[in-house]
Specification:
Elements (H helix, E strand, L loop, with lengths): L4 E9 L3 H15 L4 E12 L6 H8 L2 E2 L6 E5 L6 H12 L5 E13 L18 E4 L22 H4 L1 H11 L5 H14 L5 H10 L2 H4 L6 E4 L2 E2 L4 H11 L4 E3 L6 E13 L5 E16 L1 H6 L1 H17 L6 E11 L24 H19 L3 E8 L8 E3 L5 E11 L13 E6 L9 H4 L11 H5 L5 H15 L8 E4 L5 H12 L2 E5 L12 H6 L5 E6 L4 H10 L4 E8 L3 E6 L4 E7 H4 L7 E4 L17 H10 L7 H4 L10 E3 L2 E2 L4 E2 L4 E4 L7 E8 L1 H4 L3 H16 L11 E7 L5 H21 L2 E8 L3 E6 L2 E6 L3 E10 L16 E7 L10 H6 L12 H16 L5 E4 L4 H11 L4 E6 L5 H6 L4 E7 L3 H9 L4 E9 L3 E6 L2 E7 H19 L2 H9 L18 H6 L7 E6 L6 H10 L3 E6 H6 L9 E4 L13 H8 L2 H12 L4 E5 ...
Parallel strand pairs: 7-23, 12-13, 14-32, 18-21, 29-30, 36-39, 41-42, 41-43, 43-44, 44-51
Antiparallel strand pairs: 1-2, 1-3, 2-5, 4-5, 4-6, 7-8, 9-10, 10-11, 11-15, 12-15, 16-19, 16-20, 17-19, 18-20, 21-22, 24-27, 25-26, 27-28, 28-33, 29-33, 31-32, 34-37, 34-38, 35-37, 36-38, 39-40, 45-48, 46-47, 46-49, 49-50, 50-51
Helix pairs in contact: 3-35, 9-24, 11-12, 12-15, 12-30, 20-30, 23-24, 27-30, 30-31
Length: 1280
């Protein structure tokens, strides 16, 4: 047996200067001393031999051998493998370094201070849930240490009795009930054998509240009266009464909703893209990942989004995720130096992250997974809520809500899984098993504090979105065929394979035989139980026919997607897991035991009444102070810090994200997706939630949540309420009578109003352990969440352009109308009541269903008749927030005029359902009379004024007046504060200060595009071939292929593996488009790993070199493709002065609709576009151009700078976020001196249609000016 050898290399500086400054600040505050801190990346490499290619390895890692010792090191927790390691090892394998076994990254820190290291708090240097501190290099040897496999354990109940089962239940964290323990004890006694730990863990996961939804399937007794329906029955009743459009409900990983026939971009068997007419249906799913996010926010939220994406992909016989959403509920933030008057002293257990830490780390985790996978995240919400402690109890979100959801698409032929038969192959698709998330399903089913704190470490999960992207490519390829190879697919989530594989068997009325040794495993020390039940992410379980094995394997190999055939289905309905090495069965149980008829949970509750009390007088409270505080409340304030970190344009299938208008203000009420690159058909998605109302009136909170979701989407023309489908997510702290009664009341209320409105709820999820308990200073504390129902509504849309946003029209003479469900102004549960710490008895509610229907249809009719210019619904913060957010979209003032019909504060701050709409004054009488005739409350309340003041008058007496800019600063304050802590503070300040720049007018364009040229060039029959080049992790190929195809090309999907295998040669193409995404997850620098796989393979390198030298072909590199090509500049003629692309100055992934201006160059793709100023999608983390020596001057001298970020005056800008990455002179596009190779960081391929831009000129037609790039490519190819 050969010995391994470890090598240590020193890499680049670990963190930017701004990030190190943040660490220093935290260190000084905690330890009360100053320190000098520096850090470098340290790479530990394990080789099979002592001889390695040192020079090549150092080049790939951008490192040198390291002899220096650092003060301490931070690396992955012992026994874990970081996502960075997995991706880097892929690169090293693909460049041909076969003798490298393992690579891992650590951070070496040098710390100079006047104190012993052991006496210092070092918590700011690492995440204790995912990382460890290593004192010296000698400790590194344990990182790659592989212990012998842990053994299978038998629980000796035959001798020790049931108590041994109870002991195992506690020590393993199974979270089984007494009834379940009795059930298992009886089963194994009858079998006359002891259970294995693998069997018990499998049973615990399969029968956890998380998986079985026992409370929603429970029998209910309320005040001694037995209810004849379960909570699940109540939800299902909505689909029974309104089945329109539902194809699949409650049967699969996501609901399937009827779509339409459109032109789908299809990849045929020759890997050629083509538009093909097909029936595409919609999928919808919304999940939560609360417990893992509380324990370790980044991986918890990241894998929350990843798990929901897998749910969508594993729907039917394979579906495609399309757009995503994210939501968060946390307790009060308590931002340092920004404490709010309503935030009291913090009390929380040490085992969970603070609300502020959650909101710094978790959103990045969720965004990073969506970004890397390639799903735009276009919708979300954020709520902060926490009450004062009373008898050591409070309401709040110490256990946060982390909501992850989205919609996807599935071909009509793939709606349903097939009935598989005996001897079908069982396949595990995706990454290997690791000791990750063990027991997560059970852990999520208990209140925080009820389980062993050490078990929380076992629940921490690990993300690898790039692997999930590869899996999805396999699913896409299979499902795009006439007859998909996938006959059954299930995602691997809670419980790991021990849940997914038995589910496959159960749903097929078959058994399974699985071989333990065939399960891919990256940790050889794991026991059979750990291999079977770990929750390693990015995995799917499939069933395929053995005749399709070879074809399926070829697809996986091309995508470099790991897979394993681990067993087969059997006629005997049992689960058998065979261990060849030990010649035993760690699992051998009938399916009837695993999914048997366990005792049904019984819920007995007493009706709860809120005591009546005298309401506080809202009119005694200062108006100006209340407006400021409402705008500063995190629930109301700008969510920009949550949004710009997420890519919202990838795929080119987004018609509306969170930002609206030329100033890109995040106030959109809904999200819009497209079904096709050639139509305006799509879907609208919106969210509603009102948990603060639930403390007083849980039924009203659910009616209002649905109402908010519907009013949020009402700015888009849909066919009717009966076409709306809803996902309902339920979070509650079950176990106390008041909480259980609130849950029952909320479900009953939602079911009834949904039935009355003909809205169906075909999908949902519950998380009913929203309670945190802990002991501190001999006192017991408890924080419970109120009933928190989150409603996600979706509806098909015939034409996404038939929609309005809160962006005000400043060109016409207009009025602002208030339209409401009623003339009540109830304040209970409002943001106003929170910030003023006042109590109110009565909550907003939907008191009259018929009026609500008229309100909705009235708005829809006004939209259809083009009467509404702008619209915003009333929600958190009340009417005043609605109007101010509309003003922010154009930086204009407004005058409100009130009368004596109600109190000022209740009128402005009540959150009753309603809208503010902008209409032309010449339509005022018609619109007002139409609504009044339907008994809808309507009032002319405001108009836009010339200056920037927002003024409120009552009977011509001024009550309030303040600059809209100053009010927007109040509104942005929380977002700016978190952005400053999380990112580069100087850059965050730059964005806020832009508000004071009156010369900044937001996005503009100076070009009116004539698309007739597109029709002319497509008359020619010749279709040149363009290679749409991608590497593993690239996710932007579809939109690139669509743009080239519509411009008259034959676009072909070319994977780097095709070139490495010799199956494809670049010489066969007239053009090459190098796509955006996250090749290898951007480890080793964006595009770095991709370029190394070319440079270290001589045959492939020669192909590229010959292609770049051919005068008859062109190359376009976008984003990741731009970064990759910049690393190939030595083999690209005329590219010797190109820059590298480094981390953005903000220290953050930046997704913006930016403004660029095109310069005069030799670029064949930008021919004729000189001086065009156009908005464009920009989304990257490493886009800052960095030049060596005089390279920038050389490029400018030779006119190779093709594109700059520019301000409203068309001047190149380095001001953030006009320039989102910090490149000098705003440089963001470059060409080779011959003009045939053009690279750029922005994404024109995502916005070649007008409808794909969140702001555009109104005089553009179907296409945006960016289509000219692809027209130019066709013209160049036609000439050559």
């Amino acid at each position: 047996m050969s010995k391994t050898k470890n090598f240590i290399f020193k890499g680049k500086q670990s963190f930017s200067s701004s990030k190190l400054d943040q660490i220093k600040h935290q260190f000084s505050n905690s330890n009360k001393i100053d320190a000098k801190i520096s850090s470098n990346e340290i790479y530990l490499v394990q080789s099979k031999s002592e001889k390695i290619n040192h020079e090549g390895l150092q080049d790939i890692l951008a490192a040198k051998e390291n002899d220096a010792e650092f003060t301490f090191y931070v690396g992955p927790r012992l026994g874990t493998i970081s996502p960075w390691s997995s991706k880097t090892e892929d690169i090293i394998r693909n460049v041909g370094f076969d003798n490298i076994e393992r690579v891992e990254r650590l951070y070496g820190f040098n710390l100079e201070c006047d104190s012993e290291i052991n006496a210092l708090d070092l918590s700011m240097f690492y995440d204790r849930m995912t990382q460890s501190i290593y004192n010296n290099k000698d400790d590194f040897k344990n990182l790659f240490k592989s212990d012998k496999p842990r053994s299978l354990n038998h629980i000796n109940i035959l001798e020790a009795g049931k108590s041994e089962l109870e002991r195992a239940n506690k020590s393993f964290g199974f979270a089984m009930s007494d009834q379940e323990i009795d059930y298992l004890y009886d089963f194994y006694n009858n079998e006359k054998r002891n259970p294995t730990d693998a069997e018990l863990m499998m049973f615990a996961q399969a029968n956890s509240e998380h998986c079985r939804h026992k409370i929603f399937n429970a029998k209910w007794n309320v005040d001694g009266s037995q209810k004849n329906n379960t909570l699940f029955d109540l939800i299902k009743e909505t689909s029974k009464s309104s089945p329109d459009g539902i194809i699949s409900a409650y049967k699969d990983n996501a609901a399937i909703i009827e779509g339409s026939k459109v032109e789908r971009l299809n990849l045929n068997e020759s890997n050629e893209y083509e538009f093909k007419e097909d029936n595409l249906n919609s999928t919808i799913k919304v999940e939560t990942h609360n417990h893992p996010t509380a324990i370790s926010p980044y991986p918890g939220a990241s894998t929350g989004s990843g798990g929901e994406i897998r749910d969508e992909g594993a729907t039917g016989r394979g579906a495609k995720p399309k757009i995503g959403l994210v939501g968060f509920n946390v307790s009060n933030l308590r931002i340092p130096n920004l404490l709010r008057s309503w935030e009291k002293n913090e009390l929380k257990p040490s085992r969970i992250a603070s609300p502020l830490d959650i909101m710094i780390e978790a959103p990045i985790g969720a965004a990073a997974f969506n970004n890397e996978f390639g799903r735009p995240s276009t919708l979300g919400y954020f709520r902060c809520f926490e009450t004062d402690f009373d008898n050591n109890k409070a309401f709040g979100y110490h256990k946060p809500i982390m909501l992850a959801g989205g919609i996807g698409e599935v071909r009509d032929v793939n709606n349903f899984k097939l009935q598989i038969k005996e001897d079908y192959l069982v396949v595990v698709l995706g990454g290997p098993a690791m000791l990750i998330g063990l027991g997560g399903g059970a852990a999520s089913s208990v209140s925080s504090g009820d389980s062993d704190e050490d078990l929380d470490f076992a629940s921490v999960q690990r993300d690898n979105a790039e692997m999930e992207r590869r899996c999805q490519e396999v699913i896409n390829k299979c499902s795009s065929q006439e007859n998909s190879f996938i006959e059954f697919i299930h995602d691997v989530g809670a419980g790991g394979l021990s849940n997914a594989i038995p589910e496959l068997a159960k749903d097929s009325n078959l058994g399974v035989y699985i071989e333990l040794s065939k399960i891919p495993n990256a940790d050889k020390s794991m026991s059979p139980m750990e291999i079977w039940s770990n929750e390693s992410q990015e995995r799917y379980v499939l069933a395929i026919h053995k005749d399709n094995k070879n074809a399926f394997e070829k697809i996986c190999q091309r995508e470099r997607c790991e897979y394993a055939i681990v067993g087969h289905t059997t006629k005997e309905m049992s689960v058998k897991l065979y261990d060849e090495q030990n010649k035993n069965y760690p699992v051998d149980v009938p399916l009837s035991m695993l999914f048997g008829d366990l005792p049904i949970t019984e819920m007995e509750v007493k009706e709860e009444f809120v005591e009546t009390f005298n309401e506080d007088n809202s009119e005694d409270i200062d108006l100006s102070d209340s407006i400021t505080k409402v705008l500063q409340h995190p629930t109301v304030s700008s969510k920009s810090f949550l949004i710009t970190i997420g890519d919202r344009t990838v795929s080119g299938m987004v018609a509306r994200d969170q930002f609206v208008g030329p100033y890109q203000v995040p106030v959109s009420d809904y999200s819009l997706s497209l079904r096709s690159y050639t139509s305006n058909n799509g879907e609208v998605l919106s969210i509603g939630e009102k948990p603060t109302i639930a403390l007083i009136n849980p039924a009203a909170s659910m009616r209002m949540a649905l109402g908010e979701a519907l009013t949020n989407m009402s700015g888009v023309v849909i066919k009717g309420l009966n076409n709306v489908q809803v996902s309902a997510n339920w979070m509650a702290a079950s176990g106390e009578n008041s909480d259980d009664f609130a849950l029952r009341s909320g479900v009953e209320a939602l079911s009834k109003i949904a039935v009355d409105l003909k809205v169906s709820i075909p999908v949902g999820k519950d998380s009913l352990s929203m309670r945190t308990k802990w002991s501190e200073n001999n006192s017991d504390y408890e924080v419970s969440s109120p009933l928190s129902g989150v409603i996600t509504a979706m509806a098909p849309v015939d034409d996404v352009t038939e929609s309005v946003t809160p962006e005000l029209n400043t060109s016409d003479d207009t009025s602002i109308l208030l339209i409401k469900l009623n003339n009540k102004n109830r304040l209970a549960g409002s943001i106003f009541s929170e910030i003023t710490e006042t109590k109110y008895q009565h909550t907003p509610d939907i008191d009259d269903i018929e009026v609500f229907e008229k309100l909705f249809s009235g708005i829809q009719n006004l939209l259809k008749s083009k009467k509404i210019l702008a619209m915003h619904d009333i929600s958190d913060g009340g009417l005043i927030t609605t109007l101010l957010e509309m003003c922010f979209t154009k930086k204009v003032g407004m005058r409100m005029d009130l009368d004596d019909s109600s109190g000022v504060n209740e009128f402005l701050f009540s959150e009753e359902i309603g809208f503010a709409i902008q209409i032309k004054k010449n339509n005022l009488d018609e619109v007002t009379n139409t609504l009044k005739n339907e008994n809808i409350y309507v009032k002319n309340i405001a108009e836009i004024i010339d200056d920037e003041q927002f003024s409120i008058f009552k009977n011509d007496s001024e009550l309030f007046s303040k600059s809209v800019i100053e009010l927007e600063k109040n509104w942005r304050e929380t977002s700016h504060a978190i952005q400053s802590i999380r990112d580069n503070e100087e850059i965050a300040n730059s964005e806020l200060s832009l508000l004071d720049d009156r010369n900044f007018q937001g996005l503009k364009s100076n070009i009116s595009f004539d698309e007739n040229e597109l029709k002319h060039i497509n008359i020619k029959r010749t279709k040149p071939k363009v290679a749409i080049l991608r590497e593993q992790g690239v996710n932007g190929q579809n939109e690139m292929a669509a743009a080239f195809t519509l411009a008259g090309f034959n676009a072909f999907d070319v994977h780097m593996q095709d070139l490495l295998d010799g199956n494809t040669n670049l010489k066969d193409f007239q053009g090459m488009a190098v796509c955006g995404g996250f090749s290898y997850g951007d480890v080793l620098g964006a595009g770095g790993g991709w370029s190394k796989t070319i440079l270290y393979n001589n045959l492939v390198k020669d192909q590229f070199q010959e292609f770049f030298s051919d005068e008859k072909v062109f190359t376009l590199g976008v984003c990741n493709g731009c970064q990759m090509l910049s690393n190939l500049k030595d083999i690209i003629p005329g590219a010797e002065f190109w820059p590298s692309f480094e981390r953005n100055l903000s220290d953050q992934f930046e997704a913006r609709l930016a403004q660029v201006k095109i310069s005069k160059t030799e670029s064949v793709l930008l021919d004729g576009m000189e001086d065009w100023m156009i908005p464009v999608a920009s989304a990257h983390g490493e886009g800052r151009a960095q030049f060596n020596n005089n390279d920038l001057q050389e490029l400018e001298k030779s006119n190779q700078i093709a594109m700059h970020f520019v301000d409203s005056s068309e001047n190149s800008s380095e001001i953030y976020p006009i320039n989102p990455n910090g490149s000098p002179n705003g440089i963001t596009g470059i060409t080779a001196s011959n003009g045939r190779v053009t690279i750029m960081m922005p994404h024109p391929e995502r916005v070649f249609r007008k409808v794909q831009l969140s702001w555009h000129r109104k005089d553009w037609n179907e296409y945006s000016p960016w289509m000219q790039i692809f027209i130019n490519a066709k013209k160049f190819s036609d000439k050559n």
